[in-house]
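Regression test case RT-17, inverse folding.

Input:
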């Protein structure tokens, strides 16, 4: 259980940090070639890449979740199954006293 929480926490942090780092890199022109773009093109490119980075992180998280295999198949509670089978075999009070079979017969 703690491995699942750890994966979720790390993925959540990366999902917040990646777009902020991309926008920061474009704003301070850390990435090569960004200074050649116009300010509006820098804004568009940084926003687009930030959105793409979030989607990539979500996709990676889904991939990791689908790759996990359960250690054992979940099994129903035996006491619940026994009670359910017993309740199916017992006639209900409407089945015992109602012999009209839906024809509207009044006793």
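Golden output:
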């Amino acid at each position: 259980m703690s491995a699942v929480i750890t994966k979720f926490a790390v993925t959540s942090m990366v999902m917040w940090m990646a777009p902020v780092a991309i926008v920061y890199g474009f704003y301070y022109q850390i990435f090569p070639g960004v200074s050649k773009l116009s300010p509006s093109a820098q804004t568009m490119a940084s926003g687009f890449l930030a959105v793409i980075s979030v989607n990539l992180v979500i996709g990676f998280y889904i991939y990791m979740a689908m790759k996990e295999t359960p250690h054992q198949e979940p099994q129903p509670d035996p006491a619940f199954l026994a009670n359910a089978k017993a309740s199916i075999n017992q006639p209900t009070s409407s089945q015992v006293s109602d012999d009209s079979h839906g024809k509207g017969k009044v006793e």
